Amino acid sequence: MGKSKTNKFRRPQFNAEGLSVTAVKEVEEDHDEVCDGVDSPAGELLEKLQSPSADVREFACASISRLVQQSQTIPGFLQRDAVRRLGPLLLDRSLAVRETATGALRNLSACGGHEVCEDMVKQDVMTPLTALLRECCAGFETNDALSLKGQKNTVEDVANEAVNLLWNLCWSVNLLSYKSLLPLSLAHCLHTVTEDNAELLCSMNNAVLGTLESVLRSSQADMAHTLLRTLAAGSVWNLKSSLPTARQAQTLNALMATLSQCLELDAGTLIPQLRQAEVARSATASEAGNMEDHQAAAGNTAVEEMDEEEGVEPRTNGKATKIDKDFSDLLPRGKEELREATALLTAQQTSLEIIVNMCCSDDPSDDEWEEASSSDESEMCPDGLSEGNTSLLSPLCLSAEVHGALINHNIPEKVLKKTQFPSSEAMDVCRHNPTWKMLIKKMHRVQYRALTCLHNMLSTMDAESLGGAAALQAVAQHLSTLVFSPPDIPKEEEFLEAVTGAMRSLLQIIAYMKIPQCMTPQQLMSLSEAATCCDVVSVRVNALAILGITGSTLAQEKRTAETLQMIGNALLQVATKDANLVVCGEALDALFDVFADGDEAERAAENINLLSALKALQPVFKAKIRKEGKGKYSPEQLCVLDNIKVNLRRFIGYLETVVKK
User: Which residues form a coiled coil (predicted)?
Assistant: First the structure.
């Protein structure tokens, strides 16, 4: 026997003109009744929010959405704790319920005015709203994260209601008026939803921009306000195209000053000071206060565990796309110093991510192989070989205004300082205090973001802006110290991805400018060996590119054949054995660069039997592209792989002519 089909309630449309006469009468009568009663439209609808049926929950939310458009009904809902009862439904399993619940809160915020909005924020509506917006962002990226089978509602529908609710709250709540965490919740949320959201820009207005600019101009020195200003700066950058022309220069300067001041703070000094302040405060606390601290420490264990989940998605187009899992707002009361330290590190990480995006080209990314590479057929020389990838060697251009602002505020210098390993004193403080241990990963993440930021600045700013040849040599020495000073090359994946990206960009510029560099081929080989064992594809690709740049430079020098053989064997090993075609292609591309020209390169190629090795590899590489290509790789990657396949055939032809000499 089949199950009987549940009757579906037709979801009422949001009615800007309000309720029917009958509904209004019922509500007005209800308003005169005892507020605690359940037998009323408001009470009955709120009870239906707990129904196991998604259709009933949706109907209740849609009905509440209509009712609250009549201002006289709002007190009745607020007295029955409507905000807290609707909040969890923002994360309901049903997209339709999510949309209508968010719509109900949106109408409540729009029709209730300033006081209702403040009350909604105080009742913690931001927690489910922020979680919903983050899920919506993930849904837009994956296209199916929230699109459940059989549901007509889309992530876009839900996000539209959520964003409008956020706008209403932002307009009504003064971000600078609270001494609580509410402004930070709002700012985090706003920063998240404004990134790469062209549709959102259409609903932008001067009220939101004015609020953000007032935050940028604030001067409170505590770390919470530093983080608040940084998040506001990120939102302003995301919304830059909506700024009135007359205010752009002034706003950009305020934005850059905010980032500069944040990066100027020394976490290595401040974290030990904050810990000392916590110890001093605890020493004078009452026994009851000490007991509270003990309970708070237990709570922080959960925070520490949650922090382990914090991560970063692969960058798209060179931008830092992050999964925002900062749980600092969950730290218990009484941990003000730890909260300040967390806010400081979060602000610095966010500042660096904003600069990463400022210095990001709109051209396709290296990681996704959507750039023009040395494999591009269109750049072939008469002998069938590419002249080289000049686009990688010529810095991409920032706008003159952004470029000037970065230089005027000494941003490159401050970014470089943040690429250093975290202070040993700060690390020791955190290691020896369980509740502070969560900061260790955050300190490292600031360093990783700084390295990524350095990579983007090297790719987009001209050498003179970065200090010229002497400064670039100093950067090379600094990166060399980071990688080669420890007894073993660090194997942390996020560090390797960031540092190899920065070294790749730096070596490209150094090779182009013919600047002597401090890193020896043997050191670079050891780095590449460590990197090629990494599971992260972008790390392996960077390592191979570094070998290609180094080898092509050495090929123009005397008595380098032995080193070229070592590089050639390493590249052949990867091209033959790596399971990822993108990595194999990068290895082949590097081989083309290293052995394209020069007596030393010809001698080395002969010694490692490069011609016969490539002839054996050619049919295998073609077969892999044909067999695996369409299922595993993007159209852009396949286009580059096809170009490499053509280049491989031509390069083999070139080697054959060399052998016949």
Answer: none
The closest of 511, 543, 538 to 527, measured between CA atoms, is 543
Lookup: tokens for 289: 């206060």
Phi, psi of 323 (to 5 degrees): -90, 110
Q: What token pair was written down for 319?
A: 């931008």
Report which of 542, 353, 363, 326 is spatially closest to residue 451, judged by C-alpha positions: 353
Region 89-104 average pLDDT: 93
User: Strand pairing partners for 380?
Assistant: 386
Distance separating alpha carbons of residues 386 and 64, to the nearest angstrom: 66
DSSP 555: T
For 193, the token pair is: 């939803």
CA distance 576 to 526: 20
Q: Which among 522, 582, 507 has a CA at the least distance from the CA of 552?
A: 507
Does residue 605 have a pLDDT over 80?
yes
Nearest to 575 by CA among 562, 585, 565: 585
Q: What angle do CA 233, 234, 236 make, to 5 degrees?
A: 65
SS3 360: coil
Does 10 have pLDDT greater than 60? Answer: no
pLDDT given at position 463:
87
Task: Taking the CA atoms of 564, 565, 568 and 569 in sequence, report the sign of the dihedral they define.
Answer: negative
In 369-408, alpha helices (H): 390-393, 400-408
**pLDDT bucket at 260, cuts 50 / 70 / 90:** very high
Give yes or no for a contact between 212 and 235, defined as CB atoms under 8 angstroms apart. Answer: yes
Determine phi and psi for 184, rounding to 5 degrees.
-65, -40
Rounded to whole angstroms, the Cα distance separating 5 from 620 reads 56
Least confident of 244-253, 446-455, 604-613: 244-253
Written as one string, the DSSP assignment of 487-533 is SS----HHHHHHHHHHHHHHHHHHHHHT---S--HHHHHHHHHHHHT
Query: In the prediction, which pLDDT does 413 show?
Result: 94
- Spatial neighbors of 284 by CB under 8 A, at least 6 apart, are none
CA dihedral (14, 18, 24, 28) positive or negative: positive
Residues of the chain with pLDDT > 70: what percent?
75
Q: Is the pLDDT of residue 310 over 60?
A: no
Copy the structure tokens of residue 27: 């509500």
State how far Cα 230 lies from the chain centre. 15
pLDDT value for 242: 83
Rg over alpha carbons for the chain, rounded to the nearest Å, is: 29
Q: Is 332 exposed, middle or buried (0-12, 13-18, 19+ CB in 10 A)?
A: middle
Give dist(CA 118, CA 211) in Å, integer: 16
290-297 contacts at long range (C-beta below 8 A, 24 or more positions apart): 292/334, 293/334, 293/335, 295/332, 296/331, 296/332, 296/333, 296/334, 296/335, 296/435, 297/434, 297/435
Distance CA 455, CA 501 (A): 6
- What is the pTM for the complete model shown? 0.72
Note the Cα 212 to chain centre separation in Å.
21
For residue 131, the model assigns a pLDDT of 84
Q: Residues 412, 260: contact at Cβ < 8 Å?
A: no
Percent of the chain at pLDDT > 90 equals: 49
Of the candidates 15, 11, 169, the residue with the CA atom closest to the CA atom of residue 94? 11
Residue 396 above 80 pLDDT? no
